Amino acid sequence: xxxxxxxxxxxxxxxxxxxxxxxxxxxxxxxxxxxxxxxxxxxxxxxxxxxxxxxxxxxxxxxxxxxxxxxxxxxxxxxxxxxxxxxxxxxxxxxxxxxxxxxxxxxxxxxxxxxxxxxxxxxxxxxxxxxxxxxxxxxxxxxxxxxxxxxxxxxxxxxxxxxxxxxxxxxxxxxxxxxxxxxxxxxxxxxxxxxxxxxxxxxxxxxxxxxxxxxxxxxxxxxxxx
Amino acid sequence: xxxxxxxxxxxxxxxxxxxxxxxxxxxxxxxxxxxxxxxxxxxxxxxxxxxxxxxxxxxxxxxxxxxxxxxxxxxxxxxxxxxxxxxxxxxxxxxxxxxxxxxxxxxxxxxxxxxxxxxxxxxxxxxxxxxxxxxxxxxxxxxxxxxxxxxxxxxxxxxxxxxxxxxxxxxxxxxxxxxxxxxxxxxxxxxxxxxxxxxxxxxxxxxxxxxxxxxxxxxxxxxxxx
Lengths: 226, 226
Fold this sequence. Notes:
By secondary structure, chain A is of the alpha/beta class. Chain A has one domain: HUPs (Rossmann fold), CATH 3.40.50. Chain A contains seven helices and five strands. Chain A has helices at residues 12-24, 43-53, 86-91, 102-117, 139-149, 168-177, 200-212; strands spanning 4-7, 29-35, 59-63, 121-123, 158-160. In chain A, β2, α2 (43-53) and β3 form a beta-alpha-beta unit. The mean pLDDT of chain A is 88.
């Protein structure tokens, strides 16, 4: 019996979240995966690997590419905006990998689905950003957003981000305890056949594996810099 | 030069809003119209009539029908949920014409577009519901939602609903002063060739015209009840 909705992209944070929900919290999530014109969407097949492994039957993959023109200021969407390296991302107040209001949009859709299913809890994989911050992954964002949803008298949806205070290495440690196969996750923004090793999310991921002192099972084009 | 984003559906509230923005507030809005699997989408052509009349060149019509499965508990979306009449709607705590979290979703998309365009203000046509209330058209909703967006350090989008304290008749009076042609608007939920006259929004519209003591220029299948 479905008891919550989870947004799962196929990156290491959201795949860890999925295993955490099922194995640690004994939840039966309905899973939403959004394809929205990002340069790399191979991670969708990784989500399918994990939903199958965890016997989750309710997995909806929604191609919301119709949104792309609304999000065109992001390097993840537009060919006109170059991907920053990790140093550039750290220096940009809001890095160009930020997708305008993406979390609000996806959480709003997930909350709608929760209402339709008659469940109250929505989970997403926000974690503490070490290198730079997105405004829509913070405890403050979560608290304020839940204050909006609390106004719904019929189905006051609650948004949860269990990893909101975790570093990437904390997420990795959590997943390793839950036997998550990180060879079946994908983080790279760049859209190549192997992970680039130099985009901000590759660097963060590689740093997390270094911190935990185990090798990343993925193949990288270059080793990346810390 | 575009200076705001407006969500315009083609109903009398949002069309009045569009004229109000251009003629009263001297705004140059980018207009977003969403098609989301509702039973009636003819109002889109009415939006085009008004954007042309007001010389608005930036009008995006987004077919977000991919969402429909997430919204399936609404009578506006699902053939399995009958449209209530006005008495039933008044008796339902949250009428079945409620579309789960629709305003949050559309406002989130509009806010993303505002960020992409580099403007801060988003307008939508929420008005005071006389017969029953939707939780996402209230001043409280607006205030709490703006408290979320205020957390965005780069582009703190502000959501505005100038008619939030207006009755339907107040909206109509405002539009009549601005010479809005209400023959080029559409409110009926039912999806027929002429407005049904009995669904909740037809009844509210007809009551507003009665209150203002002018005839509604639309043709109705039946006269509707007050």
